[in-house]
Specification:
With 311 residues, the chain is mostly helical. It has helices at 27-37, 85-96, 102-110, 120-133, 138-152, 155-179, 186-211, 217-230, 233-253, 255-271, 276-290, and strands spanning 2-7, 12-16.
Length: 311
């Protein structure tokens, strides 16, 4: 049996146990004799190996230790809200909350001083960012905001922040209409897609807040009127998404506006100037309205009860 002791260069030193080799004078005996004749002293490559610094057992070295060079602008934790205890705990709640564990994390959120003016703007900003980046959890975030608005009294601040955030995202979307008139790059397309996804995610969150009673129907109706006024493709997509998310709840209080919006969609569809994606989206919205704002294929498939959708 051959045991490899060390291998640093081309030289390999073996420790042989000859009792496991057949001593019949064949190739195995020749290999054993050649390996036994090899030694570390007579190999020429060992004299060419570079020698490193001499280090004693205490860790000191004969060479001068290099000094670390520090940058002029080192990273520092954000002391405003990024590293505050309230912000971190709320972020942990939003990262772990599910439909089944909503009650548990709601009790933890109620213990936080959310109504404190020092933390309230940052907590609301966190809610808006998480909801627009994760629209699949918008119903859970909306229910959490409803209960927190009732217990902490932050409904007015939350609705005002939602309206301001909607206008901010919408103005950013309108800027891409001007940008796309010039040279179009892959970076510009990527940024526009991300901005459009965030805008649609925020519309989804506002629609869920409207369903649970945090945002009034007048605010949603004002957003729909704003989208109708501009008449560009991105506003048309936002209107279709808004109607598909909250068309049923909005038709109960603003049926005339819903009918006006659907008439506007029909006119845009008849003009024939829409690209295929917007044309299909507009037709799906009109079909949804004709079917009483219910999907034609039946109700949406929900995960079984007790399943943690966040894994």
């Amino acid at each position: 049996m051959l045991h490899i002791v060390n291998k640093r260069t081309d030289l390999v030193h073996f420790s042989l146990k000859t009792k496991f080799l057949p001593g019949v004078g064949g190739p195995a005996d020749t290999a054993v004799a050649e390996l036994r004749s090899c030694s570390w002293d007579n190999h020429s490559t060992l004299a060419k190996m570079p020698e490193g610094p001499l280090v004693d057992m205490t860790g000191s070295s004969n060479n001068v230790q290099p000094t670390l060079r520090r940058c002029d602008n080192p990273w520092k934790p954000n002391a405003q809200h990024g590293q505050s205890e309230v912000y971190r705990r709320m972020l942990g709640i939003l990262n772990r909350v599910t439909q089944q564990s909503l009650g548990v994390f709601l009790e933890q959120a109620r213990e936080l001083p959310l109504s404190d003016p020092t933390h309230l703007p940052h907590i609301i900003s966190l809610l808006l960012e998480k909801s627009q980046d994760e629209p699949m959890f918008a119903p859970i975030y909306a229910r959490l905001c409803r209960d927190l608005a009732a217990s902490a009294g932050i409904q007015q601040d939350l609705t005002a922040a939602c309206e301001a955030h909607f206008m901010e995202n919408y103005q950013q979307m309108l800027q891409y209409n001007v940008m796309f008139e010039g040279p179009i790059t892959s970076q510009l397309i990527h940024e526009e897609i991300l901005a459009r996804k965030r805008f649609i995610g925020h519309i989804k969150f506002i629609s869920e807040l409207h369903k649970v009673g945090v945002v009034s129907g007048n605010q949603v109706a004002a957003m729909a009127e704003t989208l109708i006024q501009h008449g560009d493709d991105r506003s048309l997509e936002g209107l279709c998404r808004l109607l598909s998310f909250s068309g049923l709840a909005l038709s109960r209080s603003h049926e005339e506006l819903v009918n006006q919006s659907c008439t506007y969609l029909e006119n845009c569809l008849e003009n024939g100037t829409l690209n295929p994606r917007l044309r299909f989206l507009t037709q799906d919205t009109l079909d949804l309205h004709a079917n009483g704002w219910r999907p034609q294929g039946g109700d949406r498939i929900h995960p079984p009860l007790g399943r943690n959708v966040r894994g």
